[in-house]
Amino acid sequence: MTTSSGSHREEPSTTAGEREMLDGWLDYHRATLLWKCEGLQDEELRGTPLAPSELSLMGLVRHMAEVERYWFREIMLGEVLPELYVTEEDQDGDFHFTETDTWAEAEKVWRTEVDLARRAVAGHPLDLRSEAASHHRGEVFSLRWVYTHMIEEYARHNGHADMLREQTDGATGD
Description:
With about 170 residues, this protein is an all-alpha fold. The protein has five helices and no strands. The protein has helices spanning about 20-35, 40-45, 55-75, 105-120, 145-170.
């Protein structure tokens, strides 16, 4: 499916092997989130039309940048990285903007984190275990579990993006 700006959302293969299938679905959901943001101005992307919820399209993209970084690099590879937007004082910092925060910056950070996540796990088997018990829940995770979780995370937030976009300008679609 080609979107209005010419970006491409490729339907995942129905007969692929497990890794290709997981990569396909994750990339599909990544592309869906960006598609939901296409054609809107910064003010619209920052908007919170589902009050009292603080959810916004830009906030979802910033949140998913944090999530990509956390699961693929921090949990799976044990990298010690600073938060992108979240602070001790503001645990929802990915959804709180300053006047200088822009869509261009949020999209660039998200694209960078997706690229770094892909590179971090490229070539690793799905049975790869996280470096150590995570600070998440004191558990060890397989890369397969992380892929499945990331697909679920994007699918859930894409549902939020559907509602936000419809409330913003009436646009609907899968």
